[in-house]
Amino acid sequence: MAISMYQASIPQFTQMLTNLSNILKKGEAFAGAKGLDSKVLAEGRLAPDMFPLTKQVQIACDLVKNGMARIAGVESPKFEDDEVTLADLQERIAKTIAFANSLKPEQINGTEAKEIKFSIQEWNFEFVGEQYLLTWVTPNFYFHVTTAYDILRHKGVEIGKTDYLGG
Q1: Has residue 120 been placed in a domain?
Q2: List of residues 6+ apart from 69 with CB closer than 8 A
Q3: Hey, which residues does 116 pair with through a beta bridge?
Q4: Cα-atom radius of gyration of the chain, to the nearest Å?
Q5: For the segment 51-103, what is each residue's pLDDT rounded down to a tens digit?
């Protein structure tokens, strides 16, 4: 039996966003224990040419809300990208999880061959549903969640693989 489009997406995305939320909580605790403004963590990056933590979390959330909205054929919620603190990012994650959980399996399943077209700046993309989920949304989502984890780890937050996996 094949895994459904819903099973391959919503449960994994919501679990990883929950794990990311828990990782951010550890970042808040770390900042408090060290007497740091959590904005230092929110603005952290691994390299000068990489996005900061805030943008990594924003993009991870956008991949879920925009990606799953395209697949389901519904309007994606609009977020302002104005988060500056870890608490702001927590709110964005919570709104993203709520949206993902509002989608029903019947809205996602059966979309394997659905045509999906979108643009990002000057780039135009064309996929079918399964290809879009498996080669665009999922790997990009994990890239940005992992990078957010790595930024916090790099800044000294005591997190490990079990935090990432939700153990």
Answers
A1: yes
A2: 75, 76, 77, 99
A3: 127
A4: 16
A5: 999 999 999 999 999 999 999 999 999 999 999 999 999 999 999 999 999 99
Q: How far is CA 5 from the centre of its chain?
A: 18
Asked whether residue 2 is domain-assigned, the answer is no
Residue 115 parent element (H or E): strand 115-120
Domain hosting residue 141, numbered range: 10-165
Q: How many domains does the chain have?
A: 1
**Token pair listed for 35:** 């007497």
**Regarding beta strands 115-120 and 123-128, do their DSSP bridges make them parallel or antiparallel, or are they unpaired?**
antiparallel
SS3 73: coil
Residue 4, in any domain of the structure: no
- Residue 82, domain CATH: 1.20.120.450
